[in-house]
Amino acid sequence: xxxxxxxxxxxxxxxxxxxxxxxxxxxxxxxxxxxxxxxxxxxxxxxxxxxxxxxxxxxxxxxxxxxxxxxxxxxxxxxxxxxxxxx
Length: 87
Hints:
This is Phage shock protein B. This protein is mainly alpha-helical. It is about 70% helix and about 10% strand.
């Protein structure tokens, strides 16, 4: 490398390749960053599935609370529980 421009070009090439690989890694792992390079958030691939499951469980708990707090007789309560089991 007799020419200093070749060395500069080589350094720029290495930096560009490293930047592309870094961006690819971050995109693959769901890491979001701002223009300054600060990590804003990370996205878990299972987060949407977990949100849906939490919503489902909240609905189930609300139904069970409703059944437990209603002023109905024991027979009606037993019927409601059996209906929920059949789902």
